[in-house]
Design a protein that fits this description.
The complex is a heterodimer of chains A (79) and B (286). Chain A has 79 residues and is α+β, with helices and mostly antiparallel strands. Chain B has a single domain, classed as Class I glutamine amidotransferase (GATase) domain (Rossmann fold), CATH 3.40.50. Chain B has 5 helices and 11 strands, in the order βαββαβαββββαβββα. With 286 residues, chain B is an alpha/beta fold. Chain B has a 9-stranded mixed sheet with strand order 2-1-3-4-11-10-9-6-7, sandwiched between helices. In chain B, helix 2 packs across helix 3. Chain B starts with 14 loop residues before the first strand and ends with a helix. The chains are: A alpha+beta (79), B alpha/beta (286). Chains A and B meet through helix 1 and helix 2 of A and helix 2 of B.
Chain lengths: 79, 286
Amino acid sequence: MVNAEIRIELKKGVADPEGANTKKALELLGFKGILGVKTVKMFSIELDMGAEEALAACEEMSRKLLANPVIQSYKIELK
Amino acid sequence: MGHNGVIKMDTKDIKVCVLRIEGTNCEDETNEAFRMLGASAETIHLKQLTSDVSPAMRRKLEDYHVLAFPGGFSAGDYVRAGAIFAARMKSALAGDLKKFVEAGKPVLGICNGFQILVELGLLPAMGQTMSEFPQSALYTNDSARFECRPTFLRHDNKGKCLFTSQVPFGKVLMIPSAHAEGNLKFPSDLQNKYLEKLEENDQIVFRYVNPNEDEISYPWCPNGSISQIAGICNEGGNVLGLMPHPERVMFRLQHPDWTRSKECPDGAGDGRAIFQSVLDNVKKSF
């Protein structure tokens, strides 16, 4: 069994309104020195297969559903 | 398909498929918009097209003349808005869908439906019927909020789109918006190229404007969309996706100012022309 973590991030240059709003809210709460807030999405997927097969499956999952290549990039990590 | 102006079928013989999955919630209004104009609209679940049901429930996409993806949400809009609907449809029905579009049959996506069309690769689909991966994204509004209010749309299509043939070029329609992810984006390095191409192909159908059409910014453009685009069609003009909801303004009384206008409350609302245009075009074509 493999546990895969797929991290979906916004590509460089794509504005992140949710991150920007969170930064503003944190500053309103009094937190100082925040340079930037980014939102990322993480899927943790348990797979009943070997590492190589799991990597290929995750790659396909990312392309078919989890990431939109116009705005997002993905990183797969097997644990 | 031909545009020779000869009426070949009755409106009641036009079969409209309003397609939903778990969590879709604007299918009734969308169905009613087609029905009130005389078409035979049927709301079905995606599973009815993919044979996961009993034979009596089974439907075939090719038996319909018009396909409509209603607005609202789908599958909780988890992952990304419309992404789950699109991925499920594409894995089971990519071939049927391509055939449907290539036959010139109209496909409409409203709000979540637009997001589905973009995720499917049916819009903007430049140079092809359906791209393997999305060519654009409908991303979180600049405000990072759900924006729900009347919006003004200028009709910018020069005549290709089957859904707006009865809307004069440049006419401004009031069609309400209600979405959190309507910010149309292209790959950042290709943005200008894509925009030029869309203009060149006459694929831009609606742009957000303010009532005086001078300065166009938030809140008149609710989402920060590139070039204030609210709706686009494919190169063939038979696939339209738009964020605002035309099915919510079928009657004049659905306009926020109707009590101040002298118009009859039962008269046509600004959204009706979109449904009427496509039905009249289908009548002449199939």
